[in-house]
TrEMBL record:
The protein, known as: Peroxidase
One Pfam family matching this protein: peroxidase
EC number: 1.11.1.-
Spans through the membrane: none
SUPFAM superfamilies: Heme-dependent peroxidases (SSF48113)
Lineage: Eukaryota, Fungi, Dikarya, Basidiomycota, Agaricomycotina
């Protein structure tokens, strides 16, 4: 049997090295590429369409794609690159009761990813794959994906930046994780985040169609685009971390304006935004503890799927399975 799939990102990877069998590679590539139809890896189901809330009613104001990016950011942001600790290591699984990780996004996401974890693919790889697949499901940039992360066996450091934190400590946390002020602004502008009442927005946002008071950060909820930037610049942003009635919760305003809005102004062009977001997300997702080495997981142009050789008692050999062909 011949399976044809469209591999949008094939052209991004001129250098390609795959030797069958290579279980980690095959497993992660399957989840990344086989997003629907026959032989689907089912990983992308949770974020298809982009506005879906997978774990409950569509009236809570929650969005699974945004949750997946939030989890990656929370897992990453306590990295200490000088010490070679933290980053994307799934330590977040031991940190869900910390106030800095409040909300159901962590548990929702980790529960969704758990069945995809096996001998080859780690939960830490799922954390990174989640953001990669979510961006693609929302029409955002395709982040080059690497695999081979190792999951932590215990909690890591505290220190996820919070909405009511002052600018200086926030910049210090980003610096510790390897992000300059400019890149901290870029990553924050690129991240889809979620805020809820009552600390940040008032109860008027709660309606029958938004029972948990979720607030979107721009007017294009179903698309990963740069409206979060353009609406900030033109003063129409709904981003509560810019406009909150509670001034101490305006962490995005403090960060975005910390260089007189220069970085935000540089993100107004849609193509620039997409390429900068690819850069900063790639840096974030590939920030891992020292000693972990990552490998490129690129679409495999010709991939054997479920190949089995059977031999009957009469001595007849039968080879079954499929060859998946990537159309770019
Ligand atoms: C997430 O799950 C952990 C472990 O089961 C639990 O202790 C924690 O309270 C849960 N968090 C939320 C917000 O439900
Ligand atoms: C505003 O945010 C601060 C810091 O989190 C919090 O202590 C305070 O209660 C909030 N104010 C209101 C009116 O909710
Ligand atoms: C809630 O959503 C339904 C279905 O999309 C729509 O018909 C209704 O007008 C919405 N109600 C409010 C209060 O926005
Ligand atoms: C930055 O942009 C925001 C939003 O448009 C604006 O409120 C703020 O005054 C600007 N700050 C500086 C220093 O230009």
């Amino acid at each position: 049997m011949l399976l044809l799939v469209s591999c949008l990102f094939l052209h991004l990877y001129p250098a390609f090295a795959y030797l069958y069998p290579d279980r980690l590679y095959e497993e992660l590539e399957h989840l990344l590429v086989d997003t629907n139809g026959y032989n689907s890896g089912h990983f992308a189901v949770g974020v298809t369409p982009c506005t879906l809330y997978f774990q409950g009613p569509q009236t809570t104001g929650r969005q699974t794609s945004a949750q997946w990016m939030r989890v990656a950011f929370h897992d990453f942001s306590t990295a200490n690159v000088a010490a070679g600790t933290g980053g994307i290591d799934a330590s977040i699984g031991f940190e869900t009761t910390r106030p800095e990780n409040s909300g159901i996004a962590m548990n929702d996401s980790l529960s969704y990813w758990a069945p995809f974890v096996n001998t080859y693919a780690s939960m830490a790889d799922m954390v990174a794959l989640g953001s990669t697949v979510a961006s693609a499901a929302c029409g955002g940039p395709i982040f080059p994906f690497k695999g081979g992360r190792i999951s932590a066996t215990q909690a890591g450091e505290f220190g996820v930046p919070e909405p009511d934190e002052e600018l200086q400590p926030t910049l210090e946390r980003f610096a510790g994780a390897g992000f300059s002020q400019t890149r901290a602004i870029q990553l924050t502008a690129c991240s889809v985040h979620h805020a809820g009442f009552p600390l940040i927005v008032d109860t008027s946002v709660v309606t029958p169609n938004n029972t948990q008071g979720g607030i979107h950060f721009d007017d294009t909820v179903a698309v990963f685009d740069n409206h979060v930037v353009t609406e900030y610049i033109d003063g129409t942003t709904p981003n509560p971390l810019v406009t909150s009635f509670n001034v101490s919760q305006r962490s995005d305003l403090r960060l975005f304006s910390s260089d007189n809005n220069a970085t935000m102004q540089g993100l107004q062009d849609a193509a620039t935004f997409a390429s900068v977001c690819t850069d900063v997300f790639t840096q974030m997702l590939n920030t891992v503890p020292s000693g972990v080495s990552l490998r490129d997981i690129t679409p495999i142009p010709l991939k054997p799927v479920n190949i089995q050789l059977g031999v009957s008692s009469a001595g007849t050999a039968t080879l079954t399975g499929a060859i998946r062909v990537c159309l770019s």
